[in-house]
Amino acid sequence: MCCNGVLFADVRLQKKDDPGLIRKLGLSLEKHGSGQRFCQPCNALKGGLCTIYQNRPTRCITFECRLLKNVSTGKVLQGTALRLIQKTRKQAEKVSSLLMQLGSKSLAQPISHRFHEVMSQPLDLSAGEDFLELRSALMKEMDDLMRLVQKEFLS
């Protein structure tokens, strides 16, 4: 989930990273402040695997989510961690499905950006009750996802 746009919207390059190599590996870089970044979901994520694993950026190498740290220290059992990952993925799928129903078709954007895009559209009260219920459900499901992500994955 760190690569698919659920946990993060972008990855900032570090001083050790070679932007030229990263571009050659297929990642689109953009300026961000005095540095560079690439947006999530990562173009190198294919079928749940990193296609540039041996040459991935420093942030990708060094990042360990809270859940991984808790498994490593024995605070959380591996089976429990796998269930939490599955639960979070299912929640992200619910949010993504609602976003699609509300017009967000771009899966190439992080889930947070897609949510912001949908919610920043003017509220059309004439759109009908179904539309308003979908929008309400999206707010609830996104809130549930963000709470889960904050609690279990981000330190």
Structural topology:
Elements: E1 10-12, H1 19-24, E2 30-32, E3 35-39, E4 45-46, E5 49-50, H2 58-62, H3 66-72, H4 78-101, H5 111-119, H6 129-152
Antiparallel strand pairs: 1-3, 2-3, 4-5
Would you kindly provide a written description of the structure presented here, covering whatever features stand out?
Helices cover 48% and strands 10% of the residues. With 155 residues, the chain is mostly helical. It folds into two domains: 10-63, no CATH class; 67-152, no CATH class. Strands 1-3-2 form a three-stranded antiparallel β-sheet, with no helix packed on it. Strand 4 and strand 5 (49-50) form a beta hairpin. Helix 4 runs parallel beside helix 5.
Tags for this model:
155 residues; mainly alpha; 6 helices; 48% helix
